[in-house]
Design a protein that fits this description.
The protein is an all-beta fold. The chain contains no helices and 17 strands.
Length: 226
Amino acid sequence: MKIAANVIVTATFAVALLLFAGCKTASAQKTSDIELFNGTNFEGWTFVMKNNADPMKTWSVTNGVIHCTGTPTGYARTVETYSNYTLTVVWRFVKVVPHEDNSGILIHIQPPDVVWPKNVQCQGKYQHQGDLILQGGVSADGHPSNPKDVTIPEIVAHREEPVGEWNTDTIYCNGRDIYLSVNGGEVVNKITGCSLMSGYIGIQSEGGEIEIRKMVLSPFIGIITP
């Protein structure tokens, strides 16, 4: 294994201390892995659904796996905010049909809780995994703030697995830089100079029926490639 030389190596795993009015933020430094999903329930999570729909009709946990029906639109998010981390998500599509093939992992989510919030989305749409989307006016180097979503296409061919098989997204957040790897190997996309450095972490409900079996935060120590 090697660590990319162009990334500043640090052992600090800083939980964000941003003072969001009326929201809960983490208040301690973390130096070990954090299991965002405990394999049993949604402890540590909250839900934001379109038209205040009942989230329990969309989200469930069975046999250690999160199941999301994909409808209605909305998201589950952590109740704490985070920064400077490596996030590993293992997930899959249960099935894919036209117009029911979309999801995503949301990072650096900002209040207020609306559909959709200001955030950076690691695209989960079928055959588009590897794209990054700036939502809600988020900016980055080469991508000025825009009221419309800005999609940054993957820089290498997508690596997603067939429907029904598990994918592993690895998201590296280092200050204002974000790097994305899909199913191991080289980085498939990146942004630098992001206007966001921390926030909640979420799972998107947007049509696709998905399952997630692992969501783990690790201290950021660099980008690890084969």
